[in-house]
Amino acid sequence: MGQPIVFAVVSTKGGVGKTTTAANTGAMFADFGMKVLLVDADIQPALSKYFKIAERAPEGLTAVIMRGGNIQPDCISRLERPNMDIVVSDTVDDTLQAWLATREDRQFILKRAMRSPYVRETYDVVVIDTQGAVGQLQATAATAADILVSPINPTILSAREFASGTMAMLERLNRMADFNADLRTGDLYALIYGMDRTNDSKNIADRIRSDFRGNHKVRVLETVVPSAVSYRMAATMQLPAYEIDRPPSDKEVTAYDTLHELIWELFPNLKDAHFEDVSVSSEE
Ligand SMILES: Nc1ncnc2c1ncn2[C@@H]1O[C@H](COP(=O)(O)OP(=O)(O)OP(=O)(O)O)[C@@H](O)[C@H]1O
Ligand SMILES: [Mg+2]
To answer: Which atom of ligand 1 is nearest to 232's Cα?
Structure first.
Protein backbone atom coordinates (compact mmCIF):
# COMPACT_ATOMS: atom_id res chain seq x y z
CA MET A 1 0.00 0.00 0.00
CA GLY A 2 2.94 2.33 0.57
CA GLN A 3 3.41 4.71 3.45
CA PRO A 4 0.10 5.46 5.22
CA ILE A 5 -0.93 9.03 6.04
CA VAL A 6 -0.23 9.56 9.72
CA PHE A 7 -2.60 11.95 11.40
CA ALA A 8 -2.20 12.87 15.07
CA VAL A 9 -4.36 14.96 17.36
CA VAL A 10 -2.27 16.91 19.86
CA SER A 11 -2.67 19.63 22.44
CA THR A 12 -0.88 20.24 25.70
CA LYS A 13 -4.26 21.22 27.13
CA GLY A 14 -6.74 18.61 28.38
CA GLY A 15 -10.41 18.29 27.51
CA VAL A 16 -10.27 20.27 24.25
CA GLY A 17 -11.76 17.62 21.94
CA LYS A 18 -8.75 15.51 20.90
CA THR A 19 -10.25 12.06 21.43
CA THR A 20 -13.55 13.08 19.85
CA THR A 21 -11.69 14.38 16.80
CA ALA A 22 -9.53 11.26 16.55
CA ALA A 23 -12.52 8.90 16.83
CA ASN A 24 -14.67 10.77 14.33
CA THR A 25 -12.03 11.38 11.69
CA GLY A 26 -10.82 7.79 12.05
CA ALA A 27 -14.33 6.45 11.52
CA MET A 28 -14.88 8.71 8.54
CA PHE A 29 -11.68 7.57 6.81
CA ALA A 30 -12.85 3.98 7.38
CA ASP A 31 -16.29 4.78 5.96
CA PHE A 32 -14.55 6.23 2.92
CA GLY A 33 -13.20 2.70 2.40
CA MET A 34 -9.68 3.34 3.70
CA LYS A 35 -7.97 0.88 6.04
CA VAL A 36 -7.52 2.70 9.33
CA LEU A 37 -5.32 2.06 12.35
CA LEU A 38 -6.14 4.02 15.49
CA VAL A 39 -3.34 4.41 18.02
CA ASP A 40 -4.30 5.36 21.55
CA ALA A 41 -1.17 7.07 22.81
CA ASP A 42 -2.91 8.54 25.86
CA ILE A 43 -2.12 6.66 29.07
CA GLN A 44 -5.70 7.37 30.09
CA PRO A 45 -7.36 5.13 27.52
CA ALA A 46 -10.27 7.13 26.09
CA LEU A 47 -9.92 6.31 22.39
CA SER A 48 -9.51 2.62 23.32
CA LYS A 49 -13.01 2.72 24.78
CA TYR A 50 -14.67 4.84 22.12
CA PHE A 51 -15.61 2.06 19.68
CA LYS A 52 -16.57 -1.53 20.42
CA ILE A 53 -13.69 -3.98 20.25
CA ALA A 54 -14.42 -7.21 18.36
CA GLU A 55 -11.17 -9.00 19.11
CA ARG A 56 -8.78 -7.73 21.75
CA ALA A 57 -5.10 -8.37 21.01
CA PRO A 58 -2.90 -9.59 23.87
CA GLU A 59 -0.65 -6.52 23.58
CA GLY A 60 -1.06 -2.83 22.89
CA LEU A 61 0.78 0.47 23.06
CA THR A 62 3.19 -0.69 25.78
CA ALA A 63 4.59 -3.47 23.60
CA VAL A 64 4.78 -1.23 20.52
CA ILE A 65 6.86 1.30 22.45
CA MET A 66 8.93 -1.09 24.55
CA ARG A 67 9.84 -3.15 21.51
CA GLY A 68 11.29 0.05 20.12
CA GLY A 69 8.58 0.57 17.51
CA ASN A 70 8.58 -3.00 16.26
CA ILE A 71 4.80 -3.21 15.79
CA GLN A 72 3.38 -6.69 15.29
CA PRO A 73 -0.17 -8.04 14.79
CA ASP A 74 -0.26 -9.14 18.47
CA CYS A 75 -0.45 -5.43 19.39
CA ILE A 76 -3.41 -4.67 17.11
CA SER A 77 -7.01 -5.17 18.27
CA ARG A 78 -9.89 -5.38 15.83
CA LEU A 79 -12.87 -3.07 16.15
CA GLU A 80 -16.44 -4.04 15.29
CA ARG A 81 -16.62 -1.21 12.75
CA PRO A 82 -15.29 -2.36 9.39
CA ASN A 83 -11.89 -1.15 8.14
CA MET A 84 -10.76 -0.14 11.63
CA ASP A 85 -8.17 -1.57 13.99
CA ILE A 86 -6.67 -0.12 17.13
CA VAL A 87 -3.53 -0.20 19.24
CA VAL A 88 -5.07 0.13 22.69
CA SER A 89 -3.52 2.03 25.54
CA ASP A 90 -2.69 -0.61 28.14
CA THR A 91 -0.39 1.05 30.63
CA VAL A 92 -1.71 1.96 34.03
CA ASP A 93 0.78 4.60 35.09
CA ASP A 94 3.58 6.73 33.67
CA THR A 95 6.00 3.81 33.23
CA LEU A 96 6.00 4.28 29.46
CA GLN A 97 6.81 7.97 29.69
CA ALA A 98 9.63 7.22 32.15
CA TRP A 99 10.96 4.36 30.04
CA LEU A 100 10.94 6.54 26.92
CA ALA A 101 12.91 9.22 28.73
CA THR A 102 15.82 6.78 29.10
CA ARG A 103 15.92 5.88 25.39
CA GLU A 104 18.08 7.88 23.09
CA ASP A 105 15.84 7.08 20.11
CA ARG A 106 12.65 7.97 22.07
CA GLN A 107 11.42 10.60 19.67
CA PHE A 108 11.70 8.24 16.72
CA ILE A 109 10.01 5.13 18.15
CA LEU A 110 6.45 5.63 16.83
CA LYS A 111 7.73 6.83 13.47
CA ARG A 112 9.67 3.58 13.21
CA ALA A 113 6.42 1.70 13.89
CA MET A 114 4.65 3.69 11.15
CA ARG A 115 7.37 2.70 8.69
CA SER A 116 7.32 -0.98 9.56
CA PRO A 117 6.43 -3.36 6.72
CA TYR A 118 3.26 -4.57 8.49
CA VAL A 119 1.78 -1.09 8.87
CA ARG A 120 2.79 -0.10 5.34
CA GLU A 121 1.18 -3.20 3.87
CA THR A 122 -2.02 -3.04 5.90
CA TYR A 123 -3.13 0.58 6.42
CA ASP A 124 -3.94 3.67 4.38
CA VAL A 125 -4.18 5.98 7.36
CA VAL A 126 -3.11 5.98 11.00
CA VAL A 127 -4.86 8.24 13.52
CA ILE A 128 -3.02 8.86 16.79
CA ASP A 129 -4.69 10.27 19.89
CA THR A 130 -2.49 11.81 22.58
CA GLN A 131 -2.75 12.99 26.16
CA GLY A 132 -3.29 16.67 26.91
CA ALA A 133 0.09 17.39 28.47
CA VAL A 134 3.76 17.66 27.56
CA GLY A 135 5.57 14.31 27.50
CA GLN A 136 7.69 11.79 25.66
CA LEU A 137 4.70 9.93 24.22
CA GLN A 138 3.33 13.16 22.77
CA ALA A 139 6.76 13.92 21.31
CA THR A 140 7.07 10.55 19.61
CA ALA A 141 3.50 10.87 18.28
CA ALA A 142 4.12 14.38 16.92
CA THR A 143 7.25 13.13 15.18
CA ALA A 144 5.49 10.09 13.71
CA ALA A 145 2.77 12.25 12.17
CA ASP A 146 2.55 13.94 8.78
CA ILE A 147 -0.34 16.08 9.95
CA LEU A 148 -1.01 17.38 13.46
CA VAL A 149 -4.41 18.75 14.33
CA SER A 150 -4.70 20.74 17.52
CA PRO A 151 -8.18 21.64 18.76
CA ILE A 152 -8.39 25.06 20.45
CA ASN A 153 -11.46 26.01 22.45
CA PRO A 154 -12.42 29.63 21.84
CA THR A 155 -11.63 30.79 25.37
CA ILE A 156 -8.80 33.09 26.26
CA LEU A 157 -7.04 30.51 28.43
CA SER A 158 -7.18 27.88 25.73
CA ALA A 159 -5.86 30.29 23.11
CA ARG A 160 -2.92 31.26 25.35
CA GLU A 161 -2.19 27.64 26.20
CA PHE A 162 -1.99 26.85 22.50
CA ALA A 163 0.89 29.27 21.99
CA SER A 164 2.73 28.69 25.26
CA GLY A 165 2.05 24.94 25.43
CA THR A 166 1.41 23.13 22.15
CA MET A 167 3.37 25.43 19.82
CA ALA A 168 6.27 25.74 22.25
CA MET A 169 6.48 21.96 22.62
CA LEU A 170 6.56 21.48 18.85
CA GLU A 171 9.16 24.23 18.43
CA ARG A 172 11.42 22.53 20.96
CA LEU A 173 11.08 19.24 19.09
CA ASN A 174 11.76 20.87 15.75
CA ARG A 175 14.99 22.43 16.98
CA MET A 176 16.27 18.85 17.20
CA ALA A 177 15.15 18.31 13.62
CA ASP A 178 17.78 20.78 12.45
CA PHE A 179 20.29 18.02 13.19
CA ASN A 180 18.18 15.07 12.06
CA ALA A 181 15.40 15.62 9.54
CA ASP A 182 13.73 12.36 10.62
CA LEU A 183 12.80 14.09 13.86
CA ARG A 184 10.75 16.82 12.22
CA THR A 185 7.15 16.90 13.46
CA GLY A 186 4.12 16.90 11.17
CA ASP A 187 2.58 20.10 9.83
CA LEU A 188 0.44 21.80 12.46
CA TYR A 189 -3.19 22.78 11.89
CA ALA A 190 -5.20 24.54 14.58
CA LEU A 191 -8.89 23.63 14.75
CA ILE A 192 -11.23 26.04 16.50
CA TYR A 193 -13.27 23.61 18.52
CA GLY A 194 -16.40 23.86 20.65
CA MET A 195 -17.65 27.13 19.20
CA ASP A 196 -20.86 28.47 20.74
CA ARG A 197 -22.95 31.45 19.72
CA THR A 198 -21.57 33.93 22.25
CA ASN A 199 -19.80 37.09 21.13
CA ASP A 200 -16.94 36.16 23.41
CA SER A 201 -16.26 32.93 21.49
CA LYS A 202 -16.56 34.74 18.20
CA ASN A 203 -14.11 37.46 19.25
CA ILE A 204 -11.58 34.94 20.51
CA ALA A 205 -11.88 32.83 17.36
CA ASP A 206 -11.29 35.98 15.25
CA ARG A 207 -8.34 36.87 17.42
CA ILE A 208 -6.81 33.38 17.03
CA ARG A 209 -7.14 33.72 13.25
CA SER A 210 -5.59 37.17 13.11
CA ASP A 211 -2.77 36.26 15.53
CA PHE A 212 -1.64 33.34 13.40
CA ARG A 213 -2.28 34.75 9.93
CA GLY A 214 0.94 34.40 7.95
CA ASN A 215 2.58 32.29 10.68
CA HIS A 216 4.53 29.57 8.93
CA LYS A 217 4.43 27.23 11.94
CA VAL A 218 0.67 26.76 12.03
CA ARG A 219 -2.37 27.10 9.84
CA VAL A 220 -5.74 27.82 11.43
CA LEU A 221 -8.31 25.68 9.64
CA GLU A 222 -11.38 27.31 8.10
CA THR A 223 -13.47 24.48 9.50
CA VAL A 224 -14.87 25.21 12.95
CA VAL A 225 -16.35 22.50 15.17
CA PRO A 226 -19.39 23.85 16.99
CA SER A 227 -20.25 22.94 20.53
CA ALA A 228 -23.05 20.38 20.16
CA VAL A 229 -24.45 17.68 22.43
CA SER A 230 -24.43 15.20 19.55
CA TYR A 231 -20.66 14.70 19.96
CA ARG A 232 -21.09 13.72 23.59
CA MET A 233 -24.18 11.57 22.89
CA ALA A 234 -22.41 9.77 20.07
CA ALA A 235 -19.48 8.93 22.37
CA THR A 236 -21.91 7.42 24.87
CA MET A 237 -23.43 5.34 22.07
CA GLN A 238 -19.95 4.36 20.80
CA LEU A 239 -20.76 5.81 17.39
CA PRO A 240 -19.25 8.58 15.30
CA ALA A 241 -21.13 11.85 15.76
CA TYR A 242 -21.89 12.08 12.03
CA GLU A 243 -24.05 8.95 12.27
CA ILE A 244 -26.46 10.46 14.78
CA ASP A 245 -26.24 14.10 13.65
CA ARG A 246 -26.70 14.33 9.91
CA PRO A 247 -29.03 15.80 7.31
CA PRO A 248 -31.95 16.02 7.05
CA SER A 249 -31.95 18.07 10.23
CA ASP A 250 -33.29 21.41 11.48
CA LYS A 251 -29.76 22.29 12.45
CA GLU A 252 -27.85 24.69 10.29
CA VAL A 253 -24.68 22.60 10.54
CA THR A 254 -24.67 18.93 11.49
CA ALA A 255 -21.68 16.92 12.72
CA TYR A 256 -21.89 15.17 9.33
CA ASP A 257 -21.29 18.48 7.54
CA THR A 258 -18.56 19.60 9.92
CA LEU A 259 -16.56 16.37 9.84
CA HIS A 260 -16.71 16.18 6.05
CA GLU A 261 -15.56 19.77 5.82
CA LEU A 262 -12.67 19.02 8.20
CA ILE A 263 -11.46 15.99 6.29
CA TRP A 264 -11.86 17.68 2.92
CA GLU A 265 -9.98 20.75 4.09
CA LEU A 266 -7.08 18.58 5.26
CA PHE A 267 -7.22 16.09 2.38
CA PRO A 268 -8.76 17.78 -0.68
CA ASN A 269 -8.09 14.65 -2.75
CA LEU A 270 -10.72 12.79 -0.68
CA LYS A 271 -13.49 15.03 -2.02
CA ASP A 272 -14.78 12.33 -4.35
CA ALA A 273 -14.70 9.67 -1.63
CA HIS A 274 -18.30 10.01 -0.42
CA PHE A 275 -19.06 7.20 1.92
CA GLU A 276 -22.55 6.78 0.57
CA ASP A 277 -20.81 5.60 -2.57
CA VAL A 278 -18.69 3.17 -0.58
CA SER A 279 -21.65 1.63 1.24
CA VAL A 280 -23.64 1.35 -2.01
CA SER A 281 -20.77 -0.39 -3.78
CA SER A 282 -20.18 -2.77 -0.86
CA GLU A 283 -23.82 -3.86 -0.98
CA GLU A 284 -23.61 -4.83 -4.64
N1 LIG B 1 -18.13 19.49 19.65
C2 LIG B 1 -18.41 19.20 20.91
N3 LIG B 1 -19.40 19.84 21.57
C4 LIG B 1 -19.69 19.58 22.84
N5 LIG B 1 -19.05 18.66 23.58
C6 LIG B 1 -18.06 17.98 23.00
C7 LIG B 1 -17.69 18.20 21.65
N8 LIG B 1 -16.66 17.37 21.35
C9 LIG B 1 -16.39 16.67 22.45
N10 LIG B 1 -17.22 17.02 23.45
C11 LIG B 1 -17.22 16.49 24.82
O12 LIG B 1 -16.20 17.21 25.54
C13 LIG B 1 -15.51 16.33 26.42
C14 LIG B 1 -14.00 16.37 26.11
O15 LIG B 1 -13.79 15.86 24.80
P16 LIG B 1 -12.58 14.88 24.47
O17 LIG B 1 -12.57 13.73 25.40
O18 LIG B 1 -12.64 14.59 23.01
O19 LIG B 1 -11.36 15.85 24.78
P20 LIG B 1 -9.81 15.46 24.97
O21 LIG B 1 -9.04 16.64 24.49
O22 LIG B 1 -9.53 14.15 24.35
O23 LIG B 1 -9.71 15.35 26.55
P24 LIG B 1 -8.49 14.70 27.40
O25 LIG B 1 -7.44 15.76 27.48
O26 LIG B 1 -9.13 14.40 28.73
O27 LIG B 1 -8.01 13.48 26.68
C28 LIG B 1 -16.13 14.96 26.24
O29 LIG B 1 -17.10 14.77 27.23
C30 LIG B 1 -16.77 15.05 24.86
O31 LIG B 1 -17.89 14.18 24.72
MG1 LIG C 1 -8.64 12.44 25.14
So the answer is: 31
